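Page 47, continued from p. 46.
Same chain as before, 483 aa.
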Amino acid sequence: MGACQSFREMCDREKNTNVHLSLPAVCIVWQTAMIILFGVFMRYDHESDAHWVEHRKHSNLTDIENDFYFRYPSFQDVHVMIFVGFGFLMTFLKRYSFGGVGFNFLIAAFGLQWALLMQGWFHWLDADGKIRIGIENLINADFCVAGCLIAYGALLGKVSPVQLMVLTLFGITLFAVEEFIIISVIHARDAGGSMVIHTFGGYYGLSVSWMLYRPNLHQSSRLQGSVYHSDVFAMIGTLFLWMFWPSFNSAICDHGDGQHRAAINTYLCLASTVLTTVAISSLFQKHGKLDMVHIQNSTLAGGVAAGTAAEFMLMPYGCLIVGFCCGIISTLGYIFLTPFMEKHLKIQDTCGIHNLHAMPGVVGGIVGAITAASASIEVYGHEGLVNTFDFMDKFKDMVPTTQGGHQAAGLCVALCFGIGGGIIVGAILRLPIWGDPADDNCFDDETYWEDVRICNVKSEFSRYFSTQKVLGCTKRKKLYWYP
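Result:
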């Protein structure tokens, strides 16, 4: 107990947000390490190598059969989601837009490099000890980064950029290990990452936030809300994510019916979620008004839940049911669970990732397990069953009911890695060496960004009308402003 108390006292000493040396050092050293590791391990795969011409002639292929032409449209959509969708979704805080979109950029740029290496060592290492990189590797790297961006949502405005780099380093490592266990060892199917990405990323971020609990965070409560224009910017992120989520869930599915079905299933889940989100938001607000927080976030929960079962025969009506339920669960989570978790569980969740990613991710894992266990030859056909669940090689004798158990096991692994890994990484990030802000200085861009100019709308309008009066202007245009 004495050691624990000493650790807490050491971690809670006065904060110093000066990252003048630590941030450049981390960025330069880690990028140099990436260059060296890429030089040692990374090579083009046969479809991106200059020898493709010879391979194409030998295998009687055409250029259009190069996987790039099948995968690149999906990669482009996923890439936009990572950098624009997630980035702008985090700009809702009134004075933390730079940090929301800028640190999202930093995490993603570093994370995708480390992800290519980590996933390459687990999945793509050839007999020569080299990682062969192609378009599918880029998509999987973006998926890996998504888990860390989800975790960042719980910590938004409360951590330094150096802490975020450390969070990403460990998060990518944990992700690669749990993904390998779930996909390759347990043989669970998770095309859209309900378990591997959202459940892991959600509980990883929540566990880190629990370890970094700030008892005096109310001192920054004046900056924890949004303003009209910041909510509009965040809604841009929502719309990008909502539009491209079918590509996200179908990006690495098998060509043909699996990819086609995943896009349809996700599309329907998302549409259903919007209506129930609006309904619940209106029902629980005074005079039936809508809360923008719910519209920005809960409307995406259906895409999260559709991930695991995206390529399964979920059926169109089943997709609508999943989306219907997720809209209710996610919106009620924002209304009731988020305040409860902060007050009683000491988990401060800035973006509400528990409601958007963690809970819908668990729902998606459960839906995937039930759908897999109930699969039959009558619905899928023999070849369809084998292809959808990859019943080949050492898994050729597996039956759907067993596959359902494997899906449930995969969900448990994601939860264990998210919670356990988050507690360990949170303990590391609690050390007073990372330049994180004090409790009364959170959610403010001025801590880590230069030339942050916040315009006071009321004073600007007063100055406008004063100028018009001095100039003798009598005709005023009708203008609208929001405090």
